[in-house]
Amino acid sequence: MLLRQWGAAVLLLVLLCGLTDALGATVLITSKPYARSHHLNGLRLARALHERGHRVGMVVSALDDTFMAKHAADMPYLHQLREPSDYTEEMVRSIFDQVEKKSNLEMLTMMVERLRTAEPCPYTDLMLSQCRDFQPDMLVIDGASPCPYIWAEKLGLPHISFLPVQPLQPILSIHHDVPMSPARWPCMGSGYNPYAPSFLGRLGNQMTTYMTVAAWQVFTVQSSFAKAGMPELSYSAAARRSRAVLILSDPLLDHPAPMPSNVKSIGALLPHEGGELEIELAALLERAGGRSVYMSFGTTGVGGLSARPFIDVWAQLPNVTVIWKVSNASDAAFSEAAKLPNVRLVEWVDQNAMLGHPDLGMFLTHGGHNSISEAAFHGVPILAVAIFGDQWESAARAKFHGFGESLDKRMLRSEVIKEHVVKVLENDGYKQAAARLSRGMKLFRKRRHPVDSAVDLIEDEIEAVKEDAASFPLPLPPLRWWQNSQVDVHVALALLLVLGGGALARLLLCCYDH
Questions:
Q1: How far apart are CA 196 and CA 474, in angstroms?
Q2: How many structural domains does the chain have?
Q3: Are residues 441 and 485 in the same domain?
Q4: Are 35 and 298 in contact (CB under 8 A)?
Q5: Contact present, 354 and 378 (Cβ < 8 Å)
Q6: Are residues 313 and 239 in the same domain?
Q7: 368-403 pLDDT, tens per residue?
Q8: Where are the membrane-spanning stretches (predicted)?
Q9: 164-202 residue pLDDT tens
């Protein structure tokens, strides 16, 4: 009897091991260094993959240890691979402080200058060693960071890219051959509205596109690929080798555009219902009866240098309750705000729980992709003060859909802020537009939740790799910008037209003379 029981136990163990081997894979997720909103998307994917029985790891910067300790505290199964950092928290904060003051052109210039002098991937050998030890079957790469593509190519690992932003040109054009005309699609940082394609708007978008493409030539990371023994590759060339591309943005919010079959807009991962709001904060919102503002400038806490005019506004609006999320409540920049009876400073809040509270009046945000997506999902009107990156486009989307307004960070005067806050709080049209968009986004998730869509595609690609099968058609060969825009064809046609017209005119003159 004892032998039978042992035999049954061994058989069960063998079957379980075989089942795990058949169903479970090892997936390594990467995230852009210091981009904590990106980390949240990576963690959401990691949880879902673990729930499906996969072994999961995540690469994060050593500078983000404190953030990860807080947000991955309930994930003991997550293998964390540490990428060393040459930056300190103070250095990163000083960069964000500069960003808060600079225009888009100034930031682009600053980025190019930094890229000229910095080594983009200084720890390639160390990270290759960590990746070998972890032995992933698939890399899921945050497309905003170039270094993981080097690891994937060097180790011969299949990879999927994900972009926790709205579809943007020219990045998608350069990296994934998505056809995006500057006349129809805003360039990151331009604030162009393709639904009102004025000449000046198209001109500005084209110029921003040229500058971004020029800056991107500096950011090929060619030297890092060469040091890794792959001089023929670059950031964009390696990114094009992704088996699939996941755009973590809701089609309902985005401008419609044709996508290649392997590029999927699956929806934002972070918006969800539920979550717990602190009893004290919930009580504040209930007492405010809809005249309340949740103010947050994202996980980076950008906003300290701009605090003064907002403090003046909240002092002038004593009947508006303000819950203001800051990175450091003891910062001297917020000392006067802390004294106002209608302002509560907090260093952390469950944003979905906050935005999902029925008594919240509006959301004052930096216009980050996660924040805009969550506000739209919960039906909360917004006022956006874009700081950098794609935030101008996110703010423009909110304005187009009718559930928000935007302010230029260089025009932050207390009277202008007050006017816009009162406008959004007291105009029911913003709330109605937000509610309509919320219903659409929730219906989209009833069909198939974005997290499930992402994990389904990752699992399909893991299976395709095992079977040595293609899952998407081969992409068309990349074209130069002038080929893609048919500039050479248009020039040739213009020359033919001029030459043909000249020949015809000459013929008519000859006939007339005779």
A1: 35
A2: 3
A3: no
A4: no
A5: no
A6: no
A7: 899 999 999 999 999 999 887 788 888 888 998 999
A8: 489-509
A9: 988 877 888 888 888 878 888 888 878 788 878 899 989
